[in-house]
Amino acid sequence: MNSSNNNINNNIKRVITGLEQLLQGPKYQNILQGRIGLLCNSAAVTHNLELGAVALKRILGNRLKKLFGPQHGFLTTVQDNMIESSDFYHQALDLQIYSLYSNTRIPTEEMLSDLDTILVDLQDIGGRVYTYIYTMTLLMDTVAKLNQSGKSNIKVVILDRPNPIGGDLIEGNILEKEYRSFVGLHPLPARHGLTIGEVAQMIYRYGFDLDELDELDDVDDNKQSKFLANNLQLEIIPMLNWQREMSFDQTSLPFVIPSPNISNLDACYTFPGTVIFEGTNISEGRGTVRALEIIGHPQLEPFSFCSSMTKIFNHLNLTGFVLRPLSFMPTFNKFQQQTCGGLQIHVTDKKLFRPWKVSLMLLKYLFHDKLLKNVFKWKAPPYEYEYTKLPFDIINGSTKIRQWIESTSTDYNYTIDDNYKHVEDIYSQLLELENGNDLKKYLNKRQNILLY
Q: Across residues 347-361, what is the average pLDDT?
């Protein structure tokens, strides 16, 4: 059912996740067939912080046969961008764990050969570039092919969790199919406004291939995606009490880091924007305790830059955050053990903050900054198993964003005139990149698959 846009009831009960719905009794336990596998990591916990794999083993016993881990590993210890995790045997759980971010991102037939049901319990963070939804997609695709071939009859069951940055706001351009990668397999905006269960519902109903999803003009309820045609059995165990307008801190659930560099809820909010800096030689704060909330470079002067950008954002009415000038020294990653001048994005109003627009405007001006113009670089491949295209283009799902940034048709000396005409021109160009026909088509499709 679709949720309303009314204000959240302050007296609402704690959100109950798909995992906890399953744990509560036979209503959902009865849909699990035979031998069971579980795709999850250490962020898959109950409201009292019990690891989901432990809780599920208690009720499933020997039916729980094996575990699978996404990028960063089942233990959520491994860093980003092609730093792989290995298969291993978990002594405490007495279960084999297979990595789906190793020499393969796609589960093999051997991994799935002795399973009848696969549970997926992953905490997504609402950004297109976050890879957990694609691990789920590739699992669904593999199962569909095995079922179609007659080699298996596996059911996939998604245990839904909150989108921590809410499910009501959408932001950013739609990925173009030429730039599909492991950080973008579907034509989603940078901030997609879906739960992981709704992402599963969308690709199940409308297809996995971008060629299928390109047909967004007409919603044909009779058209079968290859998942339906291949008889994939998909179940989604929904949440209770979740509303689309909820931030994670309104769910009464504990926040557990879903990956090593998402250390708190604010990082979830900044991520759909600040992840673009991965495609540059501007530090996105990896190697600090506030990764993806702070950005910087050894040659950036933070105070003048923050002052100028604050004036620009105020004029554009981009609010809900404060830029704080700072210096930081990464312990690893870009500029290890070097002092960087930069800024931290402090989110002050989660409903007003627009991370994609803020981050791209910051990068536009950083690219043309007089102190950085001779040292700024686009990151070179490889990036997330793409060996030819620029990582920045892969992250943004298009070359158009980079072309907008590189444009030199305006004076970038931070001389703010009274009418801010050049700022308005730059921003209007960005909005044009966001508000194309593809976004309208996405919103049309999205409306048909919402679970809440």
A: 98
